[in-house]
Amino acid sequence: MAHDHQHDGPDSTGRRRAIQALSATGMLTALPAWFNFAKAQTPTQRLLIRIGADISILDPARIFQIENQSVAANVYNGLVKYDQATNEIVPDLAESWTISDDAKIYTFKLRQGVEWHKGYGAFTSDDAKFSFDRVLDPATGSAYRGQIADIIEAVEAPDASTVRFVLKNTNAEFLHKVTAFNNGWLVSRKAVTEMGDKYNLNPIGTGPFVFEQWISGSEVRLSANPKYFEGAPKISQLIFRLIRDETAAAIALERKEIDIFFAMQQPEVIERLRKTAGVQVLEREASSTVNLVINTTIKPFDDIRVRRAIAHAINRPAIIKGFFRDTKYEARTVLTGAFPEYSTEVPDYPYDPELAKSLLKEAGVSNLRFEITTPGLNPYDKFVVPMANDLNQIGIQATIRVLERGAYQQARSSGNVQSCITSVVGPPDPGAPLVTLYARKSFPPGLNSARYEGVEDLLQAVSGELDADKRKAIYAEIQRKTMEDLPVLPLYADRLFMAHTDAVQGLVQNSMFTVQGYTTSVRGA
Amino acid sequence: MIRSLLSSMIRLIVTVLGVVTVTFFLMRAIPGDPALYMLGDYATADAVAALQAKLGLDRPVVYQYGLFLKQTLSGDLGSSVVTGQPALTEIVSNLPWSIALAVLGMAIAIAIGVPLGITSARHQGTWLDRAVMVGALMGISFPVFWIGLVAILGFSHWAGLFPTLGAGNGQFWSELHHLILPATVLGISVAAYIARLTRSAMLEVLGQDYVRVARAMGISERRIFYRLALRNAMVPILSVISVTFAWSLGNAILIEVVFSRPGLGSTIMKAVLSRDYQLVQAGLLVLATAVVAINTLFNFLYGIIDPRLQKR
User: So what's the pLDDT on residue A35?
Assistant: First the structure.
């Protein structure tokens, strides 16, 4: 076995008695060993994955944050899913589906004989209907209600193996809304109803791993589902271990205390692990960009020349090369190369301080003050410093306001911030970033703190368009128009990094910021 | 005795009530909203309103406070706003980790700090005294998270003696192995304080008239030092220890983060960042109770050490 430290031998009664004797003397009463789990465990093949923040919500109706999503991705299935490697939509719990000619009725044929974890019975169309109905129900308080409420008219379950979505309007993109991610993950009616609030951290799914235990502030334990419909996983236990600091996580990987280092961000850590023998670094283009969102309703930023001046003044290539050491990539629009709809036929704003100055002069603006609000999270609170410096070079008095996440969200939602740093993380559904950044309905609250309304008709048109090529053309037009109007300046395209030891095999990195253990095995175990 | 016990109880209740009240209003005064936090980037106005209503956050703050007091007094600390789990359960499940760290850390601090302070006082003005005091000054000046990172680098990464992070796999020896380095780091930072204060307490007693009288009577220096001075210096030393215990719980938060340990500190920090009101309140209630209870316990200890204090 390659990882001896990962295997708990059965605790001998003798040792346990010795511990009890020690505690009786009162010497070591406070040690928590017996509070949690002194039970014997059989040697198993484990996969240990580092996560950088603790989990909190595993209910698909309210789930957010990559750590929660990574755990959920191993527990739940959707009707359909994104292929990990290609992002193509492929069958999951639905074996097949048909779309009516007007793209208003989507009918899914469900897999038979699938069981919920922990004895919650067979998966049926009623569970699928329930999963979406509860997201639509305002009383659930789902974050994703807004994504589907104005699309879905009704969800029907005509028989145990069929689920049908009747839509309000023609929608050619609807499959993205039922894909295995966030609210697309299906839940068991019985489990959710019975458990109530407890369901949140006791998720019941149909996926390759069964949720076993959450140890607050420490780790999350999942065990293999031997009855998984695509076959049992190769590993028997999946453990997400909380390590906040990236340098500490790198050391842990080097010492093989963990197998996979998930969500690696710091350029120094990436560089270090690239040079480490026995460690592989994976990278993939993400489906997210990091952006400067400029409020188009505050003077003088309502003037397009001022926004363009800001774009020309910021040396984005230098930030990518200098600050990020080429671990991020140029962003031409708010979509990235991970989307088939990505278009590069858009206006470009190369670094040109002279042009920026003359644009400001043309707009009649001098002594401009410009405040950038950014969350106090690495790297968002750091790369804005060279950015502000660039702006100062052309005479804009740029200031940075770093706010802790809760305060940042509140400030952004107030609509009073001149500009803010915003990133959109989500599934490879082109509607997700475009609607959340540019649609009128996405504020307040939401990400359209630019208060931009210039592509309402195009966003409407794209979901009603049945022809795939025409749809792609409309997406290209949305990207061109938004880059011309520039309510949002894409600063860089994100890149996802993961590292693993040589013992890990079969790991596929997706573009959604989640990590899945199903295809993975650990060599030598 | 009963009267002092009663007054201690009243003091405990008043202090804890004060702490939870300040916490309650402070949490609501800082910008940020749990509903907005949970709904995140896809939040819509009606979803935020619905969730606020569900969490009772749409009511006036004073009403929320009244409800909170009523529930707290009946022993119900509510459920975590984010996870929906009972807040007290999450706090209590994290408590053993923090107690283990704080107790072992304090034991190390006392074991290092008190003898160093005494030695330093005994050899006042010599190179030994200066060396100890400079060392203690450094221990106070370096932030505990920095000492922690250096310890990880030196003892875990280079020397490979201890695990870099976590709290062990549930086995007793593994948990102890994981505890040693963080507890030592905590111990060193607190020991620096204790050493300095022990030294000054000792020197103060050694300057008293009765010590001079004892010297004039020809009582051996050794006897004066350990029988007269140390015994009388114990009270200020104990009070320093009881105060630094509360302080070490604060340092434990930083240590928990550096060593990726579970515990009360990291739980409260997480709760503050996610505006998890109930969890913060429950955590601080437990923390405040612990600190006040420890101080009360030490108050009784003074009485045992110095009978004069018992009579007051």
Answer: 41
Token pair, residue B301, equals 């200890």
> Judged by CB atoms within 8 Å, which residues 285-324 of A form the interface with B?
none
The neighbouring-strand residues paired with B99 are: none
**Which chain B residue is nearest to residue A55, measuring alpha carbons?**
B83
Q: Are A63 and A72 in contact (CB under 8 A)?
A: yes
How much is the average pLDDT of B41-58?
79
| Minimal-distance CA residue of chain B relative to A145 | B47
pLDDT band at B94 (very low <50, low <70, confident <90, very high): confident
Check pLDDT > 70 for residue B48.
yes
pLDDT, residue A36, reads: 39
List the single residue in B with minimal CA-CA distance to A61. B39
Q: What is the pLDDT of residue B169?
A: 67
- Which of A4, A7, A31, A253 to mutate to probe the B interface, most B CBs <10 Å? A31
Q: Global pTM?
A: 0.80
- Answer whether A222's CB lies under 8 Å from A71's CB: yes
- Residue B261 and residue B183 in contact, taking contact as beta carbons nearer than 8 Å: no
Amino acid at A362: E
Cα end-to-end span (Å), chain A: 5
- State both tokens at A205: 């799914």
Q: In the predicted model, what is the mean pLDDT of residues A464-481?
A: 93
- Across A506-514, average pLDDT: 89
C-alpha to C-alpha distance for A331 and A355, rounded to whole angstroms: 21
Chain A (91-150) residues lying within 8 Å, Cβ to Cβ, of chain B? 138-139, 141-147
Any chain A CB within 8 A of the CB of B178?
no
Q: Minimal Cα–Cα distance from A459 to chain B, Å?
A: 17
Asked whether this complex has an ipTM greater than 0.95, the answer is no
User: Does B164 lie at the interface with A, CB-CB under 8 angstroms?
Assistant: yes
Reported as a single tens digit per residue, the pLDDT across A70-98 is: 999 999 999 999 998 888 999 999 999 99
Q: Which segments of A352-432 are extended strands (E)?
A: 369-375, 397-403, 419-423
- Name chain B contacts of A255, Cβ cutoff 8 Å: 156-157, 160, 164
